[in-house]
User: Fold this.
Amino acid sequence: MQSSSAARETFLILGISLYYAEPMKLGMSKAMFNRLAYLIKEKVGFRTIYKSWRVYSKSKANIDGRPLKTFLISGGTNVSISGSAKISHKGTLSLGLGPHLFAAKTPATLIMNKNSKLSINGSVFIGKGAYIEIFDNAQLIIGDHVSINSESRILCKESISIGNDAMISWGVEILDSDFHQITYEDDCRVSKPIVIGDHVWIGSHVIILKGVTIDKGAVVAAGAVVTKNVPSNCVVAGVPAKIIRKNIKWKR
Assistant:
């Protein structure tokens, strides 16, 4: 028979679909299974089932829509979800998992503050050492077939949207806010939304600043600092980023 710890891990890896499974096939007692199922149903199963996860929550997060298909969280991952936060999940979220050629030794972190929203609209991979924080009343939307690699950082104060088939390399920083007010001309907004379109490739150590839209099929070269909109199907590079190639196509 499976050990209780292995049973817990199996339950979580397979996710909500096991809510309808027979407990003895999982190698756990009926009482344990019922408890696990209750926690999953109440949407905070990952908070208490696996003690090696450093997970903190004032109360249970609200998960909208259909039940989770899969929510994979690596052991040691830091997760803090406010009771007023909302998660809309329509696919597979892998948080802090590996292995990866450039995998960090530090755990991944996901922080959702008061009234924040996270929308997962397909298969999303977030690597080890990544840091994602959604501040009060802000919204992060991530599309299908999206990879966010190790040591990348997303700080969302207002709104960040990442389209389908986006590929974000390691060490990338995406910040939709200056976090301190800087007044110039007639513009004094501290935060502005960021939109990353479908099939966009963000190279390593890129910095994307507030108010930027990166259109479909674009490539941002490693080390660039993006301060202005990027047209579709072009390559931008440099500090600040400028167009160096047009009418390009790229494949994963």
Observations:
- The first helix runs from residue 4 to 14.
- Residues 1-41 form one domain.
- Residues 7 and 247 are 52 Å apart (CA to CA).
